[in-house]
Amino acid sequence: xxxxxxxxxxxxxxxxxxxxxVGKSTLLNAFLQRKLSIVSAVPQTTRHKILGILNxxxxxxxxxxxxxxxxxxxxxxQHALMRTARIxxxxxxxxxLLVVEPSLPSPQDLExxxxxxxxxxxxxxxxxxxxxxxxxxxxxxxxxxxxxxxKPAEIHVISALRKDGVEELLASVISRLxxxxxxxxxxxxxxxxxxxxxxxxxxxxxxxxxxxxIPHACATVVEEFSExxxxxxxxxxxxxxxxxxxxxxxxxxxRETQKGxxxxxxxxxxxxxxxxxxxxxxxxxxxPVELDLRVKVxxxxxxxxxxxxxxxxxxxx
Length: 317
Description:
There is one protein chain. The protein starts with 9 loop residues before the first strand and ends in a 7-residue tail after the last helix. It is built from 9 helices and 9 strands. It is of the alpha/beta class. The strands form 2 sheets. Strands 2-3-1-4-5-6 form a 6-stranded mixed beta sheet, with helices on both faces. A 3-stranded mixed beta sheet has the order 7-8-9. It has 2 domains: 10-175, Rossmann fold (3-Layer(aba) Sandwich); 194-310, 2-Layer Sandwich (GMP Synthetase, Chain A, domain 3). A hairpin with a 2-residue loop joins strand 2 (50-56) and strand 3. It has helices spanning 24-32, 76-91, 107-117, 136-150, 166-175, 194-209, 256-263, 268-285, 305-310; strands spanning 10-18, 50-56, 59-65, 95-100, 123-127, 154-157, 219-227, 245-253, 289-297. Helix content is 34%, strand content 21%. The chain is globular, with a radius of gyration of 20 Å.
C-alpha cells in the first residue's frame, strides 16, 4: 500500500479451522470486538470463508473464518465447504488456529484435523468453551491428547463467548505474523461488501426462526442493495447518508413444501423473518434499512453445480 509503515509493523493472515459448531465464528467476533460472522447453534452455519480485519497501530491481523470440517460430503454444497476450508489452511494463512471443544478427540478427529493442519504453517491449538469443561483435569486430558497427536506450536485454553483468554491468544497470533505493510485500507473490517453480509444476516435469522432441514435448504441472494446517493458496493462501517437503504432479497428453497413453511400461514412467518432480519441489518449497518423478502423454489440446488456457482459457492475439488 502507498503509505508509510513504521518499523516492526506486522500484517498477515490467520485461518480459524475446526469441526462444525466449535465456536470459530464466535472467536472471530471476539477478536474483532464486533459481530461479523453469523452464529447459531446449528452445525454448518458458516458456508463461506469470511475475512475479518483487525487494525491496530502495530499490526493488521486478517482472520479467516472457515466452514466446519466434515468427515464426508453428502452433496455439492458440502464439497464446496470442505474445499474452502482446505484452501484456507493450505494457501491463505501464515498461522493456523485449530479450534476444538474441551473433550477427548476421536481417532477420526485426529486424522481429519491432522490432514487439515499438516504443512509448514505454525498451528495454535485453541481449546474453546473452557467454561463448559467439568473440571481442570478434563482440560488437561484434552490438551495432552491433541498435543501428542498433532504437536501444535502452542496450546491456548479459552472461552470465546466470555472472551476469557482471547487477548493472550491474539497476542500470540500477532507475534507470529510477518513484518509487512498492511494488505487492506486500515478503515476496512472485511474484504466483503455489505451485500454479502445482508445475505448472511438474513440466513442467520432463518436459522433462529426455523428448525429441522429448513435452514440448510435455504440460500439467500440479495438482488438489490441501494442507498440514495451511494450505490451498493461498500463495506461494513461506512457511514450512511441518513436515508434508508433498500434491500431486496430472495430466499431459495428446494421444495414447495419448504416454501410453504418459510412463508407460514397467511404469510405470518415470512413477515416475522423480514422484521427480525431488517432490525439486525439496521444494527449491523448503523443506518435505517427497508427489507423486502421473497421465496422461490430452486429444486435440489445443493446438488446442482450451476446453482452452486450462481449462489457464490466454489466448485467441487
